C-alpha cells in the first residue's frame, strides 16, 4: 500500500496549521514556504480540505486558513477522504457490484479483502492529527 503525495502534503499542511497558527489564519504561501510544498498543488488540496470541513478560510489582508475542528477530532482517514485518497486493497473492495472481475468466477477472497479494508479504515480513523503532531 502506498500513501499518496496528496495525503502526505495535506498532513504536513494541517500539521503546520495546528502547530504554528496560534489561533490566527495562515496563508497557503506561508505554509508552502515552511513546508517546502508547491503552492498550486496545495491550493487544490485546500479546496478539498475546506469542502470537507477540515479547514476554514478567512478573507482579507490577514486572511488564510485555520483548522475547522480540533486536532483530536481530525483523523488520518478524514484527511485521506478529503483529498480523495483511494487506499483500497483490491478492485472488489471499491466496486462491490463487480465481485467476479479477477477470474470471471465469484471471488472467494472478497470477504477477506473486505474485512482487511474495514480494519484499515478503522485504523486510519484511530490516528488523530493530535497524535501526528505529537511526534514532530
Please describe what this structure looks like.
The protein has seven helices and two strands. The model has no long low-confidence stretch (mean pLDDT 88). By secondary structure, the chain is mostly helical. Helices cover 52% and strands 6% of the residues. The two termini are 23 Å apart. The longest helix is centred in the C-terminal third of the chain and has 17 residues. Helix 1 packs across helix 3. A hairpin with a 5-residue loop joins strand 1 and strand 2. It has a two-stranded antiparallel ribbon with strand order 1-2.
Descriptive key words:
single chain, 136 residues, mainly alpha, two-stranded antiparallel ribbon, 7 helices, 2 strands, 52% helix
Whole-Å distance between the termini? 23 Å
The average pLDDT is 88
User: How large a portion of the residues is in β-strands, by DSSP E?
Assistant: 5-15%
Order of helices and strands: HHHEEHHHH
Helix share, percent: 40-55%
The number of helical segments is: 7
Shape: elongated
Report the strand count.
2
> Which ranges are low-confidence, i.e. pLDDT below 50, for 5 or more consecutive residues?
none
Spatial order of the strands forming the largest sheet: 1-2
What is the gyration radius calculated from CA atoms?
18 Å
Structural class: mainly alpha
Summarize the main sheet: 2 strands, antiparallel
Amino acid at each position: 500500500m502506498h500513501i499518496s503525495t496528496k495525503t502526505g502534503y495535506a498532513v504536513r499542511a494541517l500539521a503546520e496549521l495546528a502547530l504554528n497558527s496560534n489561533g490566527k489564519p495562515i496563508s497557503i504561501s506561508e505554509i508552502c514556504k515552511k513546508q517546502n510544498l508547491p503552492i498550486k498543488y496545495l491550493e487544490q488540496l485546500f479546496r478539498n480540505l475546506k469542502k470537507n470541513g477540515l479547514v476554514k478560510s478567512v478573507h482579507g489582508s490577514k486572511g488564510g486558513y485555520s483548522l475547522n475542528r480540533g486536532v483530536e477530532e481530525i483523523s488520518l482517514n478524514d484527511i485521506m477522504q478529503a483529498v480523495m485518497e483511494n487506499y483500497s486493497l483490491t478492485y472488489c473492495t471499491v466496486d462491490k457490484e463487480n465481485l467476479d472481475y479477477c477470474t470471471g468466477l465469484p471471488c472467494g477472497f472478497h470477504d477477506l479483502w473486505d474485512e482487511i479494508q474495514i480494519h484499515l479504515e478503522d485504523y486510519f480513523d484511530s490516528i488523530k492529527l493530535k497524535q501526528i503532531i505529537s511526534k514532530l
